[in-house]
Design brief:
The protein has about 90 residues and is an all-alpha fold. The chain contains 4 helices and no strands.
Length: about 90
């Protein structure tokens, strides 16, 4: 499971970092997906822990990888705003 999550994050992050300027729609979709991953991981940690065993190391690693990619793609301030907006949406 750990390797599947790491591979998934790597695939998503590679696509966002190498997106051509003409692929704005695809890039936006990938960024939205990354933001939702951060939100989902936060939800899993906050709400699912009472029902399931959560591997914090895997969860933190996935969130950290995705967050670094968002920071590189959008810049730290805009990435934080996107994550905050996702938190409000959830």
């Amino acid at each position: 499971m750990r390797y599947v999550l790491a591979a998934f994050a790597t695939i998503l992050t590679a696509g966002v970092c190498t997106a051509a300027p003409t692929d704005d729609g695809q890039r936006a979709d990938k960024i939205d997906g990354l933001v939702r991953i951060v939100g989902a991981q936060a939800g899993i940690v906050l709400h699912c822990r009472q029902f399931y065993a959560i591997d914090d190391k895997v969860s933190d690693g996935l969130s950290r990888t995705v967050r670094l990619t968002l920071d590189q793609s959008l810049g730290p301030k805009q990435a934080q705003t996107a994550v905050d907006d996702e938190g409000k949406r959830l």
